[in-house]
Amino acid sequence: MHSSQWKYDHQATSFEPPRAYLLRGRLNALAWRLPVSHRVASRLSELVYRNPPIPAELVVEVISTLGAGNVSCWIRGGWGVDALVGRSTRSHDDLDLLVDAGDLPLAVSLLERIGFKEHYRVDSDRPLFSRVVMHDHELAGHTVDLQPIEPASMEWAFASGMIDGSPVPCVSREFQITHRASYRHRRVDRKDLAVLRKSAVDASTPAVPRRMRAIAATVSSAAASLAASLTGRAATSLIVPVPAAQRLLDPSARVRGLPAHITVMYPFLRSREMSRRERRRLADALSAVPAFELTASSIGRFPNVVYLKPEPTSSFLAITHAVMALWPQVRPYEGEFEEIVPHLTVSYGDEAPSGIAEHLPITAPIEEVWLMRRLGRGWVRSARIPLGAQSGSRR
What we know:
By secondary structure, this protein is α+β, with helices and mostly antiparallel strands. 33% of the residues lie in helices and 26% in strands. The protein is built from ten helices and 17 strands.
């Protein structure tokens, strides 16, 4: 939506959203007041409301306001991508800002002066999880997400960019790519990554033909992956492979080195942390979980994700909980989701692959967990860890 359709004057601390967003905002407020669980309220909220797109001139105003107050901040997320490439690549429902933790109270105060009010806050010991979310309208406001950090620990992560002709502080391309490797990608994340990678190649080799640029990008990725492997910094994950579902995967869900699978734990430990002792501990823990038979007979959906529902869910949860009991600091997708939902992703988007229902149900024996290690743009298997004897069998 073009910014001229949004009537706001932050100097006068007033903001008037279009009527459609006001109606959706009221429905959203009603959804959160219903006597239902947080998960149900969240799903209802997603159906009726999305934050209004935040315009470039408002981003510049927010940054200018904070800069005038000597608040150290850096744009990340989708607007951070646009700042790095110096152009608009898509609309953005919020403005994500890293803020020096010591400047956070001042940042909140300064934004209040231009019409924003605190919507909610989250306090956490996990990096990049604490935040103060502010809106400039009670029901349908633009959203600024302030995320406190300790800048001295991540000096490599900062850069400068351009939005609407104005220079702005932002996080580096390396930070944007590295951070997105820590959680499951949505459609907008995949688009942002494509923009970042293309801009990196274009900036470094503008006169090189496209095919040579692609080769250079692959070599660069391989070199980075090799460096991570040599230093033990490569990411790892735990999955349950389901080869019987491989033919059902849409191209969007195919990742080099990964078979059709149910994720047990991602992100897991860094490769350097998976010593022989830790692998033995993991093997001992998983040997207490009996092998079982998987059945997938129905299709489920998350936002932009289509998946098969594996049964019995209790067996998959038992594997995940066994891992969490050994390493309490790890959580599936870093605790981003309130509920752990075992799922076998078959495509990204809103549509299920054509003809998939004809191949259901799928049944398969589940007898082992694979330890996977990141390598370049794909994954390699580091270990196969067997589960315990199936109930009633003599494995």
